[in-house]
Amino acid sequence: MSLAEATARAKHDLGKYVAFQLRWLGAQASDAELLEALRADVLNTRRGPSGSESAMALWERLRGDLVGADLGPVDAGIALLQGHAQGLEAGTCSRADLEACSQAALDIARALADLARTHR
Fold first, then answer.
1. Distance between CA 103 and CA 117 in Å, rounded?
2. One-letter-per-residue 3-state SS of 49-113
3. For residues 37 and 25, is the Cβ–Cβ distance under 8 A?
4. pLDDT at 48 over 90
5. Which of 18, 33, 70, 85 could be cross-linked to 29 through a Cys-Cys bond (beta carbons 3.0 to 4.6 Å apart)?
6. Which positions ≥6 away from 19 have C-beta within 8 Å?
7. pTM recorded for the entire structure
């Protein structure tokens, strides 16, 4: 797979869905709304008949095909999300944690779109 194909795939498979529901929330979203969106977008990023896959697992699977691309911004966002995954699952994240996760998910989506554009 070429780098252009790999970045386009990462943009679609992870970048599109890691912040899919978050994009619809306004600045006035409640903690419960943020948590629900993050659980769907981050913990169940890819869903299908065989189950779901988290953003972190999806990134681990996609990352190997992206040799030669600047992955630092995506790695940083994924690391932040990984650090809060247990809190997201348990529903114990503070508002600040939810906002940090939301920003990380949006940053990942933006970084993957930029990579796909750069490596077309």
1. 21
2. CCEEECHHHHHHHHHHHHCCCCCHHHHHHHHHHHHHHHHHHHCCCCHHHHHHHHHHHHHHHHHHH
3. yes
4. no
5. 33
6. 41, 102, 105, 106, 108, 109
7. 0.94
